[in-house]
Design brief:
single chain; six-stranded parallel sheet; elongated; binds zinc ion
Length: about 375
């Protein structure tokens, strides 16, 4: 069948909107007609060549839609079912999966990196008959695509599909970072750097875990009202104030005669944007025994220059985190149930719907830090 897709052909060049040929689903694969796909910062990193990946590729990894067809042997879903799509498909057989850490499955990682489906082949070809790669088993910037059966998550039909799309990346990443990786307890203090889709979900999870105080930090002062709505107790405009100083003084730090501050700092400091400068600030914002958590992807050519002398002396920890350390097929349905109570405020998180043809404008808006909340691509 013919599909329309935004194709990445060269790093740091615009997406090209193309008509592609999509082969039908093979054994244990599902054809999904997409309705919504979120634009994640990782998509922007791929576009800019900041995450190395094999091209040409159809990216977009935060998608939801309706099952249009199923291949032989599929039992999980049927035509007409609503589904979200996950970009991490645990193989169930690798050491990480056996240890219950399917979010860092190594068994399917080769196919993930090569942009193939689980049998090592692609279902997409361009006008010249050349193979086009799948982005993270999802390829959400296309009108329809073929997904491994284990990559689809059934969604209730009374749950809005635009919100179901967010269950594929920013919601589990943000939530899992707070509830699994950090395991924040009531009364713990926290700071969140970068209020994109993941950062806002980190904030929401901190609020529902009764962290206090919760500092939200961003370079865009206009994000203050959204930060407070999502649960921040303090907002710091990083373009106007030094957040480290503000946080230290607000958490028991004492200013010395030379202007330095002794003590203070939060229990948990999250850096959700993948920016080396913010990572350094997140590090210094944490107090003695503090944990610094990085769920964001940092561009491969931007090292973070952290002086670590105090890491052992203050017994700090730096924690990496992929996909919120979730168990995909258990936690996404659970979070979906929670989202239906409106506590996650996903209706407020989605602030704009755009058409696939506008995707280069959306990337430009992300570059200019004009995106507040999550923008989702809407398909007919
Ligand atoms: Zn993402
Ligand atoms: Zn595995």
């Amino acid at each position: 069948m013919k599909i329309k897709a935004a194709v990445l052909r060269e790093p740091n060049k615009p997406y090209t909107i193309e008509e592609l040929e999509l082969d039908p689903p093979k054994e244990r694969e599902v054809l999904v007609r997409y309705k919504y796909t979120g634009y994640c910062r990782s998509d922007y990193h791929l576009l800019k060549g900041e995450i190395p990946i094999m091209l040409p590729l159809v990216a977009g990894h935060e998608a939801a839609g309706i099952v249009e067809d199923v291949g032989p042997g599929v039992t999980k879903v049927k035509k007409g079912d609503h589904v979200g799509v996950t970009w991490m498909i645990p193989c169930g057989k690798c050491p990480q999966c056996y240890r219950g850490k399917g979010n860092i499955c190594s068994g399917n990682f080769g196919a993930f990196l090569e942009g193939m489906l689980l049998d090592g082949t692609s279902r997409m070809r361009d006008k010249e008959g050349k193979m086009v790669r799948h982005g993270n088993f999802v390829s959400g910037f296309s009108t329809a695509n073929v997904i491994p059966e284990d990559g689809v998550i059934p969604m209730p039909k009374d749950f809005p599909l635009e919100q179901a799309a967010l269950m594929g990346c920013c919601v589990p990443t943000g939530w899992g970072t707070v509830c699994n990786t950090a395991n924040v307890q009531p009364g713990d203090s926290a700071a969140v750097y970068g209020l994109g889709g993941v950062g806002l979900n980190v904030l929401r999870a901190l609020a529902l875990r009764h962290a206090y105080p919760i500092f939200a930090i961003d370079l865009e002062g206009s994000k203050k009202s959204m930060a407070m709505e999502f649960g921040a107790t303090h907002f710091i405009d990083n373009s106007k104030e030094d957040p480290v100083r503000v946080i230290q003084l607000a958490t028991g730090g004492v200013e010395m005669p030379d202007g330095t501050i002794m003590g203070g700092g939060v229990d948990y400091s999250f850096e959700a944007i993948g920016d080396p400068g913010a990572q350094i600030q997140a590090y210094w914002s944490s107090g003695i025994g503090g944990k610094i958590v990085f769920p964001g992807i940092t561009p491969h050519d931007q090292p973070t220059n952290l002086p670590l002398m105090l890491l052992p002396l203050h017994q700090k920890s730096i924690l990496g985190n992929l996909y919120g350390a979730i168990s995909t097929h258990i936690d996404i349905p659970r979070m979906t149930q929670l989202a239906k109570t409106h506590d996650l405020k996903l209706d407020k998180l989605i602030t704009k719907k755009f058409k696939l043809e506008e995707i280069n404008d959306v990337a430009e808006a992300m570059e200019k830090r004009q995106i507040k909340g999550r923008w989702v691509c809407e398909f007919d």
